[in-house]
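Fold these two proteins, one after the other.
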Amino acid sequence: MLAHPVLHELLELRRPDITPRELRVNWFSLEHAEQLYLEYLELDQDQNGMLSSAELSNYRCPTVQLTPEFVDRIFQECHTYRNRESAQSEIDYKAYLDFVLAMTYKGTPEALAYFWRLLDLRKAGRIGTFEVSYFFRAVIDKFDELGEEPNCKVEDVVDEIFDMVAPADPMSITLRDLLECKVGETIVGMLTDVNAFWQYDRREQLMGHGEEDA
């Protein structure tokens, strides 16, 4: 517990010289709590205190571009409430905070376990090429919707993901494989967020621009 970065973040609040910018990104500060709640209110377009799948899809857009398939899985696996007027399933603020925590700290074991529940479509404890193809094909479809060129094939990226994970069973990936491969955050991004895959796919170009800027 003493070595955990979350505790370090809590202890940061004891610093007398902590800046307003640092407070806005510190999960234990009042400023950050207010910011999160304001974001929630902005997403809640009908102002009924809950978020529908369509409202959650606008999460931090355009920097994040979640696929409809991934958002649907959130509403299938998380506790939801039925809207009497629209008959839609909606999530409350608590479920939203769980989602935001997972999105913010994708590389942590807790976040990867959260995403694993969503990726494991058949609740088999392992995912194969079918699940990886299902989620990545949604990323490609989103590229087409945005008028962008994906510049890749689904089959090639599926093979690349399996190579990155190097699972114990070459035919399927387990949560343990995802945790031990050390690139779980990258893989989750590739399967759920168009912008995350775009950055991964063009990482060499972006690194080159970074060096030129430096």
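Now the second one:
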Amino acid sequence: MADSIRVAVLGMAHDHLWTNLKQMSELDGAEIVAGADANSELREKFSKESGCDQTFADYEALLDEVEPDAVFGFCATADHADVVEMCAPRGIHVMVEKPMAATLEQADRMLVAAKTHDTRLMVNWPTAWSRSLRTAKRLVDEGVIGEIWQLTWRGGHSGPDELGCSEHFCGFLFDADLNGAGAFNDYGGYGASMCVWFLGTPSSVVGVAGRLLKRHLPVDDNGMMILRYPHAMCRLEMTWTEAVPHQPPHDVVIYGTEGTLVAGESVTVFTRSDKEGETVALDELPDGQSNGPEYFLGCLRNGAEPEGLPNADLSRDAQEIMEAGLLSAINGFTVSLPVEHHLFRDA
């Protein structure tokens, strides 16, 4: 690969794009060379934010003319699979914003395309760059709290509309086809990916979801999942209806046979010998892993697969948990994994 990695942006509706562009601008050895989106207003904002004037209304037109080395996909979640299937045959590596896809079938399409054409695929989970979560993982791996038997987590806020997300972002978040669901898919993947990271794939999932308060939306505003493992359980909560966002804090709580770990702004460990708890100094993030663009581009330079939460296989397994949870919520029964209905033709 050339000394300077040429990166294009496909899709600009996701509000996280603008933070990632800023992070990208602070890196050496990479440049934004073009961007594409059907919306002219977003193309204009992209040029202003990135300093790149080369924009296209059509994704394939950009790929054909510009031939970038890599792509950032910040389109609607359901369009991620199309982006990877366009890029992989051209040898173009892709980073998409979380979650991986809107459905398990789409996630599998992405993996198939990337593996078939030997290209890198990364899912940018903001949780991957959390020092407290990285510290918690190290402590768990070291056996500080013994064997995990439960993980609990809550994610969400007052809702994208009340938070002030853009009309473009809300436009796909509030669309069941483009987002896969509402709050359930917006936040379920965060918790599901953490469970896979700490415990692997569960044996079954129970999910519930509903539109409890935001009756002006066509999608769910709350959901929950219970993940069953042979010797552990996880409880995940997803919401768009908190009157006071993040109060109490949405800390990750991990229960082990020898103690309990709470990871939020800080990490506190309670053990049988220290019931009052000890606050642990947070680990520094490894060099080259302070944010998504830095890590993705580093993987491309080193010819390495992304590891941990951004790994595509892990993210696909998180998608399977979300799919199982939605199937359970819709049908009212426990769903066993693996979920394989998408592998076969329609009846």
